[in-house]
Design a protein that fits this description.
The chain is mainly α. The chain is 73% helix and 0% strand. The protein starts with a helix and ends with a helix.
Length: 174
């Protein structure tokens, strides 16, 4: 990103290749809308380019990227507050996970669909902290910087959100 900031904008392609799937996964888990998530990934990369001067290089690139993604997501939610629709997670499972056999794939799709349903029932704040920690594999310290809070607060939020998610998941599964 420092090279992009210095004017080598061709490096954005490399950043896109490395991070677009992770961003899609984050946005999809937050919205439940595949097409909107794909559009928002593009918007995040556009803002990276537009606001490249704000990247200092002091922290990790991922932290800055997710901070931009949260802002893009917040803007989208405000703009589309009244039009909520969910896509079928099975159509986009390959963008979220890897390839596997047919039986395993079917079971995985069912588990992902149940997990997605459970995630959708969480508050946006709980869903966001779980997606960042579990799906995007950010460290608590990074999440704290993204969310402008303390690492301890993130640990508590993740713990509470996991307990709530487990309860909801088991209720849906049964």
């Amino acid at each position: 990103m420092l090279r992009v900031k210095a004017g080598d904008v061709d490096r954005m392609g490399l950043l896109f290749e490395r991070y677009h799937r992770k961003l899609f996964g984050f946005l999809y888990h937050m919205l439940g809308q595949a097409e909107a998530s794909e559009d928002l990934v593009q918007t995040v990369f556009y803002r990276m380019l537009k606001y490249r001067h704000t990247f200092t290089g002091d922290g990790e690139f991922r932290t800055w990227m997710y901070h931009l993604a949260r802002n893009v997501l917040a803007d989208h939610v405000k703009k589309n507050r009244h039009s909520v629709r969910h896509s079928d997670v099975a159509d986009y499972a390959e963008k979220i996970g890897g390839g596997m056999g047919a039986d395993e794939q079917l079971q995985r799709e069912q588990e992902v669909a149940t997990l997605h349903s459970a995630l959708a029932k969480l508050s946006a704040e709980n869903r966001e902290v779980l997606v960042l920690s579990r799906f995007q594999e950010l460290k608590y310290e990074e999440i704290a910087r993204v969310m402008n809070t303390t690492e301890g607060a993130v640990k508590v939020r993740v713990h509470r959100a996991m307990n709530e998610l487990k309860t909801i998941y088991l209720r849906i599964e049964n």
